[in-house]
Backbone:
């Protein structure tokens, strides 16, 4: 019996899948199975291209931080910085750029020099009860040495391990994470500069 030739009632679902769909279904299954392997074998340059392509589909610009300030604080970010915006679980903006510093990685048993990656991530979440919200913030830093930052108020700390500044101000919880191997000794300073701008504009 050839199910492709059977007439179907309007709105009815065929009892059997049509044979012509199988190649497409198998192709999609093969792609899904191979995707992790393809991702694992991608070179750093290919991974950056994928990030750039994906970022181009996301909405922008960052609603609470100007891109021009990123270029001012991180000169090597230039105009080629990739921008990513996320709304869940909390609004965040991430800027990614190729740093001038190069790191050594093992690939196929050989030492390969690859560019480092600069990254700035800013997250903003609403705060209703500062004391309780701050307890939840501190739970995100288990077994870490934290440095109080009184310039930002009672609820403010810097984590050298995560290179992240967290504080509560003006009804929001803020996190500023900095990864910049071109300026390793200025990461907290630059995070504070970002924080100062966020406090000024909120």
Residues:
């Amino acid at each position: 019996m050839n199910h492709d030739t059977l007439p179907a009632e309007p709105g009815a679902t065929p009892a059997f899948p049509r044979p012509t769909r199988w190649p497409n279904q198998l192709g999609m299954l093969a792609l899904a199975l191979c995707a992790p392997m393809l991702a694992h074998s991608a070179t750093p340059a290919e991974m950056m291209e994928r990030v750039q392509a994906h970022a181009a589909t996301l909405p922008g610009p960052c609603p609470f931080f100007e891109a021009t300030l990123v270029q001012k604080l991180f000169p090597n970010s230039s105009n080629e910085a990739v921008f990513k915006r996320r709304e869940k679980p909390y609004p965040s903006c991430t800027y990614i750029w190729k740093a001038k510093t190069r790191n050594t990685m093992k690939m196929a048993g050989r030492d390969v020099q690859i560019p480092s990656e600069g990254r700035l991530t800013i997250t903003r979440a609403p705060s209703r009860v500062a004391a309780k919200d701050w307890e939840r913030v501190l739970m995100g830093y288990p077994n870490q040495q934290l440095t109080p930052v009184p310039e930002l108020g009672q609820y403010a700390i810097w984590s050298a391990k995560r290179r992240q500044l967290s504080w509560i101000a003006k009804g929001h919880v803020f996190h500023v994470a900095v990864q910049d191997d071109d300026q390793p000794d200025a990461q907290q300073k630059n995070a504070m500069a970002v924080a100062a701008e966020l406090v000024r504009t909120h």
User: Anything to note?
Assistant: The CA atoms of residues 133 and 139 lie 10 Å apart. The two ends are 70 Å apart (CA to CA).
